[in-house]
Write a structure and sequence with these properties.
Length: 258
């Protein structure tokens, strides 16, 4: 039999070896992960918050093959809506976010880490649109809210903007509609962190735009597709006869509001 000291040394050695194997395993996962180490940490934190604090449930995974580009569109009821869509994929979703929010130090850091795309309001932001198109063309996921801002009204959806249609047509990728219900929001940046909720994410089928490729400069095509995206989002909410509307200034991609 081993002495007490020898047993203690053996136990410590085994624990140390297991710890080393665990570190090596985590390192291997990070090397294979599409996320940076900081993104991986935030992704794990996001799972805890969305699943435990906000009781998030999702209908499935984003129906986009690995390495395939797509544009994700969703309704917008809270500043944390992208957090729930993140549960449906193990890939980075590049959200278009209003540029003024990047000036808030902690938010700006967060958006940079999450590889979001800053976009200016009030005018056509050509640079942001080109960045989104390039990302989607190269197999990335780009997220937009066609409403352009958080919907604080009683209406199911606000009037839509053409950014998603323009980017998807130029990049020649499908559009995946999503509907988020129950998102917590009290009108402040951080209030949702102190609110409980029961959130549900419903993911629709990809919309094939191939019949419209090459027609992204036609206003009528952008209007038709924007209405279609809104109708698909409404159907996911159970409103099959929803009459979609277009924004008065039908010219600019809709950034994520916070």
């Amino acid at each position: 039999m081993l002495s007490a000291a020898a047993t203690e040394v053996l136990a410590i050695s085994l624990l140390g070896g297991m710890g080393l194997l665990g570190v090596l395993y985590l390192g291997l996962l990070l090397l294979r992960s599409p996320f940076t180490p900081v993104q991986s940490f935030l992704y794990g934190l996001n799972i805890l918050l969305t699943r435990i604090l906000w009781g998030a449930r999702i209908s499935g995974r984003l129906p986009v093959a690995p390495g395939e580009g797509a544009v994700i569109v969703s309704n917008h009821r809270s500043s944390i809506d992208p957090s729930f869509i993140a549960l449906a994929t193990d890939r980075v979703v590049h959200w278009m976010v209003a540029r003024e929010y990047w000036r808030i130090r902690i938010l700006g850091w967060f958006f940079r880490v999450c590889a979001a795309i800053p976009v200016s309001r009030g005018r056509v932001d050509t640079a942001a649109t080109r960045s989104a198109i390039r990302l989607a063309q190269n197999g990335g996921l780009v997220g937009l809210f066609p409403e352009g801002r958080i919907n604080t009204t009683d209406r199911l959806l606000l009037p839509g903007r053409p950014g998603a249609a323009l980017i998807a047509l130029k990049a020649r990728v499908p559009v995946v509609p999503c509907y988020v219900s129950g998102s917590p929001y009290d009108g402040t940046y951080w209030g949702c962190l102190f609110m409980s909720a029961r959130v549900r994410l419903t993911i629709g089928r990809p919309i094939d735009l191939s019949e419209y490729y090459g027609r992204e400069k036609e206003r009528e095509v952008l209007e038709t597709l924007t209405r279609r995206f809104l109708m698909e989002i409404a159907r996911l909410a159970g409103a099959h006869d929803y009459p979609p509307e277009l924004a008065g200034r039908f010219c600019q991609p809709g950034p994520a509001d916070v």
